[in-house]
Amino acid sequence: MTKKIEPGVLLTGGAGYIGSHTFVALVEAGYQPVILDDFSNSHPVVLQRLQQLTDRDVLCERGNVLDTSFVAGVLRRHRCVAAIHFAGFKAVGESVQRPLMYYSNNVGGLLSLLQAMETTDCRTVVFSSSATVYGDPATVPITEQFPCAPESPYAHTKLMCENILASLRTSDPSWRVGVLRYFNPVGAHPSGLIGEDPSGIPNNLMPYVTQVAVGKRSSLNVFGNDYPTPDGTGVRDYLHVTDLAAGHVAAVDALLANAQSFTVNLGTGEGTSVLGVVRAFERASGRTIPFEFGPRRAGDVAQYFADVSLADSLLGWRATCNIDDMCRDSWHWQQRNPDGYRNSSGISLNQQSGDLAQPKPNDPLLSPIGI
Ligand code: UFG
Questions:
Q1: CA distance 158 to 125
Q2: Is the CB of 186 under 6 A from ligand 1?
Q3: 92 CB under 6 A from ligand 1?
Q4: Protein residue closest via CA to atom 29 of ligand 1
Q5: What spacing in Å lies between the alpha carbon of 204 and ligand 1's midpoint?
Q6: Which residue's CA is the nearest one to ligand 1's atom 15?
Q7: For the residues of 11-59, what is the DSSP string, one character each?
Q8: How far apart are CA 154 and CA 275, in angstroms?
Q9: Which of 133, 140, 203, 205 maximizes ligand 1 atoms within 8 Å of its Cβ, making it the mutation to test the pocket?
Q10: CB of 306 closer than 8 Å to CB of 183
């Protein structure tokens, strides 16, 4: 019996939170994902977890997406038919402090990837964009037709990347481009093996709440209770990361099948307030989450949630998990991994490179997890 060839899909930043969940979804859908990551905001233990989850060798090349010839080499070696671009900085506040770092890494990273793709004749790309490009919307739910009004350097980098992709498509219609505007990804794989592992004090609500629940932080500071929302706290469209991962598979499938480019929102279409998340987390964990109200956080908007009808009609994708599922899986991950990937399972980095990568012998270009 001949083995079906699994199309290779490059995942820049594939060792990160969303990339690692997408790795699993792609394997389940019959693709061969290839991780390219510099591990600046991820931990190599995730590779061992991915191996456990998928029961296969994990292809991973350590390097930076800004190194165009390295990226081209990875695309060639693994005969990638598509790339998903996750690699990028993502902290809104940090982008205000260090705009040059954000523009050069996020915009430069995409340019480098696209140049590498062009030279290797791989012209199918899915880009991780963000609902942050809409800024403060006049109304909700937000459709893809809403005007873009980025408010932070981070948001500007996302919109600039979208514009670069649009120009490229205009210049050469053989490019197939899928832009995914994520709302608020949370949760973890139900196995508890992979999840979000922020370094330092979490910026985002869900990882902060999980750390309060596990006793690492004493209480949650709710940023503002005077918004024009039902309970006065900010409302967001939280999306389970496994649903988001499935959205990437749907995007790759659609681009490879139809050659039609698109920009779609990925969310549930449901808004949940900060206090709604706290209550759902208390239900999931059986613990009380102490909180106090503080002032609004600069740059936050009152509420946003997605109109998700386009993703449904175009990609046949819709979210399947609700806020209780998200909290249950976040809690499971946090309990199993109180320190994230750190201090876990005690395997050394060198062992990993031997176990997990598949170097072709004597290939001088290959740098599998070269730690
Ligand atoms: N919040 C708190 N306390 C905290 C953290 C957050 O009350 O300690 C509140 C915020 O004020 C907001 C809500 O929880 O009302 C969600 O905040 P997050 O920081 O989790 O998420 P944001 O909506 O601010 O931003 C996220 C990503 C951005 C992305 C944006 C839009 O962090 O990268 O969604 O997709 F751009």
A1: 15
A2: no
A3: yes
A4: 132
A5: 5
A6: 234
A7: EETTTSHHHHHHHHHHHHTT-EEEEEE--SSS-THHHHHHHHHHTSPPE
A8: 27
A9: 205
A10: yes
The one catalytic residue in 154, 182, 238, 304 is: 154
> H or E segment at 8?
strand 8-12
| Residues 144-160, mean pLDDT to the nearest whole number | 97
Q: How far apart, in whole angstroms, are the C-alpha atoms of residue 245 and residue 116?
A: 24
Length of the chain (residues):
371
Ligand 1 centroid, distance to 209 Cα (angstroms): 12
Residue type at 278?
A: V
- Distance separating alpha carbons of residues 199 and 89, to the nearest angstrom: 13
Q: Are 202 and 234 in contact (CB under 8 A)?
A: no
Taking residues 149-166, report their average pLDDT.
97
Quote the ligand 1 centre to 226 CA distance (angstroms): 16
| Contact assessment for residue 264 and residue 299, using Cβ atoms and an 8 Å cutoff | no
The DSSP code sequence of 190-259 is: TTSSS----SSS-SSHHHHHHHHHTTSSS-EEEE-S-SSSTTSS-EE-EEEHHHHHHHHHHHHHHHHHH-
Which pLDDT does position 299 carry in this prediction? Answer: 85
Q: For the segment 218-267, what is each residue's pLDDT rounded down to a tens digit?
A: 999 999 999 999 999 999 999 999 999 999 999 999 999 998 999 999 99
209-219, pLDDT tens digit by residue? Answer: 999 999 999 99
Q: Which protein residue has the closest C-alpha to ligand 1 atom 5?
A: 205
Please report the domains of the chain, with CATH numbers, ordered by start residue: 8-186+239-269+306-320 (3.40.50.720)
Query: What is the secondary structure of 78-128 as a DSSP string?
Result: TTEEEEEE--S---HHHHHH-HHHHIIIIIHHHHHHHHHHHHTT--EEEEE
Distance CA 17, CA 92 (A): 17
C-alpha torsion sign, points 72, 76, 82, 86: negative
Instruction: Using the structure block, give the residue that is written with the tokens 């029961």.
Output: 55
